[in-house]
Amino acid sequence: MKLVYTAISKKLFYFRMHISKFVLEKDCIPLNPFMLFEYFMLDAIDKDRIREANNNLVEKADELWVFGEISNGVLAEIKIAKQENKPIRYFTVIDSKEIKEISKEEAKFEKEIGDTPRDEL
C-alpha cells in the first residue's frame, strides 16, 4: 500500500478522521499530521519540531494529497513534495461530508496567503 501524506490546514482539523478514512478506503496508508501530533501536541513541544517531523513524513511518503484550502503550511509541504518529485493530488471537502478530487487549477488558497502564483502548486 502507498503511504499518503495528507496535507490539510488547521481549518479542517475537525475533519481529520474522515480524511484518514477516505485515504484508507483508497487502499493507501494515511500519514495524517493531525492524527499523529494532534494540533501541535497542545503546545507541549516546540512547533518548529513538529513542522520538522511533518516535513520528514512528506519526504518519506509516496504521494502528497492536499485537502481543502491551501494554507502557508500546506504550501510548504507542497514545495517539499515537488522537490522530491512526489505525485500531488488535490481534493475539496464539500459541506463537511463529501470529498471530491479536483484539479490543481481548481485548488483554492486561504486568504492569508494572498495571490500565490499557481506555478508553486
Explain what you see.
With 121 residues, this protein is an alpha/beta fold. The protein has a single domain (2-120), classed as 3-Layer(aba) Sandwich (Rossmann fold), CATH 3.40.50. The chain is 33% helix and 23% strand. Helix 4 links the parallel strand 3 and strand 4 (88-94). Helix 3 (47-60) runs parallel beside helix 4 (72-83).
Strands, helices and their partners?
Elements: E1 2-8, H1 16-25, E2 28-31, H2 33-36, H3 47-60, E3 63-67, H4 72-83, E4 88-94, E5 98-102
Parallel strand pairs: 1-2, 1-3, 3-4
Antiparallel strand pairs: 4-5
Name the descriptors.
single chain, 121 residues, alpha/beta, Rossmann fold, five-stranded mixed beta sheet
